Amino acid sequence: KAHVAVFGLGGVGSWCAEALVRSGVGEISLIDQDRVEESNINRQLLADYKTLSKLKTSAMAERLLVINPGLRIHEYPERFDLGSSDKYDFSIFDYVADCIDMVSAKLLLIKKAFEADCKIISSMGMGNKLSAEQIRSSKLSKTESCPLARVMRRELKKLGVDISRLNVVYSPEETKGERTGESAEGRGRPLPSSVIWVTGTAGFLMAQHIILDLSGVYNRE
């Protein structure tokens, strides 16, 4: 009966969402503004030539309803930002999976979840990494050698968020190089490349954490 919200349906979020539903989550909210593009096919579960140009929320919902026709599903094909954030009532979510790329949106999402006392787990940077074996879950305050986690620690402290309470999935692996392009933060910045075994592993670890936490396993340890 748990209701989980997955923000971001890319290389991490798409795998997380499906793992949650296959593991018995009965209600899910999907939030993503993008449409499926050919460049997504190498790593995103919902991406293939049949789903090109579809809204990611719709493509993901179709997959999940085939797995569980009784699934209660809510689609929000929009960007999560200051303009849209007030429409979300975080008190109705049992858990939030933060799989968003943009730092500003991640910060806002985490702050909103903490203010509502809603459990959340956040994915750190998985771009330009090749080793799935190094991906792990941790408190944000315990992360190391992850550039995005370093930025998140600094900015969340400014917002008054207790980073020792924030669960994240991250990799300490040194990034393997970058190609230049248009990133979520602006033109001309490094654009990270991602591979399926890294993003998929991160998504599965997020789902594992959510399911075990909702099941009370962590409380028994």
Blueprint of the fold:
Blueprint: E1 3-7, H1 13-22, E2 27-31, H2 56-67, E3 72-76, E4 95-98, H3 103-115, E5 120-123, E6 136-139, H4 147-158, E7 167-170, E8 179-180, E9 190-191, H5 196-214, H6 217-220
Parallel strand pairs: 1-2, 1-4, 2-3, 4-5, 5-7
Antiparallel strand pairs: 6-7, 8-9
Helix pairs in contact: 1-2, 1-5
Q: What is the CA-atom radius of gyration, in angstroms?
A: 16 Å
* Biggest sheet overview: 7 strands, mixed
Low-confidence stretches: 179-188
Going by CATH, the architecture would be 3-Layer(aba) Sandwich
For the biggest β-sheet, the strand order reads: 3-2-1-4-5-7-6
Helix amount:
25-40%
What gross morphology would you assign?
Answer: globular
Mean pLDDT: 93
CATH topology: Rossmann fold
The first-to-last residue Cα distance is 23 Å
**Under the CATH scheme, which class?**
Alpha Beta
Strand content: 15-25%
Number of domains: 1
The total beta strand count reads: 9
Number of helices: 6
Q: SSE order, as H and E?
A: EHEHEEHEEHEEEHH
Quick one: CATH superfamily? NAD(P)-binding Rossmann-like Domain
Structural class: alpha/beta
